[in-house]
Each structure stands twice: as structure tokens, then as C-alpha cells.
Amino acid sequence: MHRHDLALIGFGGVNRALAEIIQTRGEELADDLGFGLRVVAITDLRLGSLMQTGGIDLGAVLALPEGATFAGLPGGAGVPQNDFVIRNTTADIVVEATFTNPVDGEPAVSHVRAALESGKSVTTTNKGPVALAGAELSRIAAEHGVRFEYEGAVMSGTPVLRFASETLKGLRVSGVQGILNGTSNFVLGRMETGMTLAEAVAEAQALGYAEADPTADIEGSDVQLKVVILANEILGAAITTADVRRRGISRVSPEDIAAAAAEGRRWKLIGSATRTPDGEVVATVEPVALPLEHALAGVSGPTNAVSFDTDLLGTVTVSGPGAGRIETAYALLSDIIAVDQHARTLAEAAR
Ligand code: HSE
After folding, report:
1. In terms of domains, do 100 and 173 share one?
2. By C-alpha distance, which of 60, 29, 28 is closest to 334?
3. 42 closest CA partner among 86, 106, 1
4. Is 322 in the pocket of ligand 1 (CB under 6 A)?
5. Which residue in 111, 168, 205, 180 sits closest to 320, CA to CA?
């Protein structure tokens, strides 16, 4: 059976969850999808690097005790050696899952570039490289005849980008609006029950929704990166974060929440991108008091949702989780499936 070999760059929650999925569901997936999956390299800031061309025993790696590194394993080293591993691995797909850097996207941008330049496809859920260098990286992928897939960069495993490009094919999409940050949506919901912003943020942190520093969640910069990706991917724009006017929820007061409720409205942090009749794309992140009948008004807790404005169907809304280690790992699996399908399409066309 055909097989894809993977190199996992970063072995925190998300790539570890992908390894668990492969470990527990690999055979079932092979039956369903028609290809096998094998991990042949892993790098991680704390664990070091591991390359085994015959396939890594994921059970053994997942069971490594706290504080252990890859140094004691065959093909292992105590330091990550990301660039060396990315360039020299026998993997055909590099799965990039290091931390998101919202300023320049590094080191993920360099990881993705190195992988594409050395002829490997890349899948990632990392917003940084997609929002800040997406066009350049897609061009490098095309030049090298490989794929750059990043479905999970906007709403983790909930389909958005391929939903727009494949399922909504044939429609004209003029705009997208969404609830793209689970923490801020959870916080606004808790404020509706009488909590202060600070109390609600503390609860979101305790439940693991918010980042350790929740500023990017609350002040809208997490959503700003996602709006750049939606605008460029779905509306064909070429905008950067500087083009997205941004206001977070820190100035939404308990009085604002009560006034909206009295009018039958709910505050939501909305990221949107709209193509105006003159062809310009206008993108914003701001709190909006939505009427209760709006498709996004009923999206509560940490759930995310995106509405697409289309010409033939009107508004189509997709909602689901926007974070979570297993959910985000599923996005990577969907990207791997997309890489495989593209390769099959090319092979069939060449026959
Ligand atoms: N911290 C983000 C959220 C998750 O609350 O939605 C990833 O962007």
C-alpha cells in the first residue's frame, strides 16, 4: 500500500496528538484512505531530534518519561537540529507545529521554507507563517512541485479554507465574518451572566481556553491574523495585518452588555473581510452587538463560527471547535489527506 512518511517539527500538544491518532487509528485510516502513515523524524525544543528512516515506534516515544530526551535512542540527539532534520529527513511531508509568532512568524517561516525548498510538502496549523508569509511560501511550494496546506490555521479542525475552495465551488463569495477566537467568545458569554472581564478571563485561563498571556485573545490580534488568512485565501486579497483595523473586547463594559441585552442583542468579537463593489477588500476585527436572530449570535462558549456571504446561496455558516489538541491534530490529518489526493490526481492525469 502507498505510504506517506512524516517529519514532525515540534512535539508539543498538537503533533503529539497527531502521533496518538496515527498510533491508535493508523490501520483504520489506511483502510479508509488507501494510504499508510509512518513518522520517520521528530524534533522538539525540549526533547531534541530523532530520525529513524524505518519508522519511529510512536508508542515508545509517547511513553518517554517526563524530562527524558531523544539522546538515548538510535538516531536521536538531545538538541532539536530543526534545519538539519527538515532538509535531510526521508519524509515526504513535514508537519510544522511549533509556536505561533505573530510578529515575523519565525522560526516557523524558516522551517516551512526549508522543507518546501528541499522538495517536501508541508502541513501546518501555525497562523504565523500563513498570515505573514503565505503568498511567498505558496509560491515556493508551486516552484518545487509540492503542497503547502494549512487548513487548521483559522479554526483548528473545523473546515473553513477547503470548505470555501471546494464545497462552495461555483459560488461568488463576497464576504466572510466570524467568531474566530474561543476565549473572547467565552469571556463575553460569562460577562452576560454578570462576571467582570477580569473574572471571566481568569475562568477561561483555568479552563485552558486562554493563552497564558491572554492579550492576543482579548485585544483581537489572534483574530487579526485569522482575518488576513481568510481575506487572502477566500477573497483573493493581498492584505497584511496592518490593513486590518483591530479593536478587542477589553473596553466592552458590563453596562454595554446590559444595554445590548435590553435591545435583544449580544456582543460578539467579529473578524470580517468584505469585498466592496469597487473591488477593495475591507477587513476589521471589532466587538459588534448582533441581533439575536443573526447566525453568529447563538454561537456560545469557546465555539468558533464563520459565515460566508455567497451570491446563489445567501449566507452559509460553519461552526465548530477553534482550538484543542486533538481537534487541531485532525486539521493536520485533513491536510495530509489533501496532499495525498493532489498527488493521486496528478498521477492519474499523467497516465
Ligand atoms: N487561544 C485561541 C482561542 C486558540 O481562544 O481561540 C487558537 O487560536
Report:
1. no
2. 29
3. 86
4. yes
5. 180
| Domains in the chain, number | 2
pLDDT digits (tens, 9 = 90+) for 67-92: 999 999 999 999 999 999 999 999 99
- Global model pTM greater than 0.90: yes
Write the pLDDT tens digit of every residue in 233-246: 999 999 999 999 99
Indicate if 118 and 192 belong to the same structural domain.
no
For 109, the domain range is 2-157+326-350
The verdict on the CB of residue 14 being under 6 Å from ligand 1 is no
The residue type of 76 is G
| Residues labelled catalytic | 226
Ligand 1, pocket-test mutation among 222, 270, 304, 326, most atoms within 8 A of CB = 222
Ligand 1 pocket, residue 323 CB under 6 Å? yes
Identify whether residues 9 and 29 lie together within a single domain.
Answer: yes
- Clarify whether residues 153 and 164 are in a common domain: no
Instruction: Give the Cβ contact number of residue 349 at 10 Å.
Output: 7
Please, how many CA atoms are within 13 Å of residue 47, restricted to the half-sphere of its CB? 23
Flag whether pLDDT at 100 surpasses 90: no
Q: Which amino acid is at 330?
A: Y
The predicted-structure confidence for 256-290, as pLDDT tens digits, reads as follows: 999 999 999 999 999 999 999 999 999 999 999 99
At residue 2, the pLDDT reads 92
